[in-house]
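Page header: ASSEMBLY MODEL / two components / 553 residues total.
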Amino acid sequence: MSLVNRIVFAFLGLALSLSSGATEAEVVAVVSSRCPESALSRNQVADIFLGRSSRFPDGKLAVPIDQAESSAARDEFYAAFTGKSPAQVKAHWSKIIFTGRGQPPREVSNGIEVKKLVAGNPAAIGYIDRKLVDGSVKVLRTQ
Amino acid sequence: MSHRLIHVALLTIALHAAGARAQEAKTPLFSFNGFGTLGVVHSSEDKADFTSSIFKPNGAGYSHAWSADVDSLIGGQVTANFTPKLSAVLQVIAEQNYDNSYRPHVEWANFKYEVTPDFSVRAGRIVLPTFLYADTRKVGYAYPWVRPPPEVYGLVPINTSNGVDATYRTRVGDVVHTLQANYGGDERSFPGGGTLKAERSWGVGYMAEYHAVTALVTYHASNATLDTLKPIFDGFRQFGAQGVALADKYGVDNKRFEAIAIGASYDPGKWFLIGEWTRATTHSVLGQETGWYVSGGYRLGKFTPYLTYGQVTVDNLSDPGLNLSTLPPFLAGPAAGLNAALNSILSAKPARNTLSIGGRWELTRNAALKLQYDHTRIGAGSSGGLSNLQPGFQPSGKVNVLSATMDFVF
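Prediction written out in full:
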């Protein structure tokens, strides 16, 4: 292999790893593997996390679990499911908190903690990096 | 015996609460939250004050070239979750009061009982959700502007209620419907003395939320009494049939106050468009005021420039009053005085339109900086909602107001 080829391959490899790095953190909505729900619309998920709805479509109570405020997964989840920036989500919750209508979802430190909680509670709904998914939780199909 | 009963009751509540705690996801018993605004305002009109409420004693313009009193405030809230169904909220705000003090006052204080997760009732003190941002108008962080457009928000002066309310929420398809009804009353003190009372106040509201769309329709009624004006209308009643007729027409003594409001917002994330319309009517000197605004903004990362146009039209700004020509000379003087007082109140109705340009910048995760410039044209014969009018103040003028605030939540 010529030196030129080696350099080209090295650059290609670098470019591939960079581009896969940009897409690997796919955040998915998860529920317990014991939860009867398997598909929700993005809007239904958004409503549960924005305090507009406290139920799954089947009428059962839904308990949303947030990740830490500074986490990339959280920002990505809200951008993808609600179209809101962190500041817009905060402004939204300010409207709810300061009218006594509710408190934001319970917060845990990271995706592993979310998975632990969701796995143990059929009412819980969370979001984690797809790479963390295992048999204890079920990825919600979201359209 | 009664002590023992109380002990048993307390123990039962405690055990019940502990049992409920263990089952639910850990909800803390108490949550503390706060919010605040630090702001300065300058007005180009130095012969009158620009204020954010008719209950403020002074503001920017005449009293201060730059006033920190218009928007600055700090609020704290404790929420107690006694059981998954029973909670209580206490919110206290310190801001410039009618007497120029910053003595904290209670904005919210109520118990809430969730009959089901979708149906709740509250008893105590609430802020009425008359407009899209009415019940969070003190929380600057919650909205894009320096303050909600006064062309709508200024037309319902008493927006708190001590009483009861009920809220029902249901999701049908992708639409979240919320119905709200309230009953109560409240009163507020004016800087110059006297109070405005809203008694037997009741209201209903319907809100629909669908994806990025929020729409709201509300109706609100109360019996209004403005005791400050009583001496003036008692004076009119001394002038026979024509005086009594004027006093009945304009007096604010247990008069029906009604407001209807319609509003909608579209906020897909990248930009927003908000519009609200309201009509407030009191069959009195306060008359009928119709206000609306439209506001739009575009989010460029952390920066959100916005543009707002708002307008208020009013029924009448003057009245000929008592016919002086039919009065003997010794009564014409006092009658002219009463006519002048009546007309000064009528002309205080805020006929005006305002074009605002501003920007909100997200400073940190819980603080935003805002800068807003308002250009207001005051209608002919109106003082445009300005207060502390000084000799030489010309009605029907133009006023430019510059505001800078930092809003935060914690």
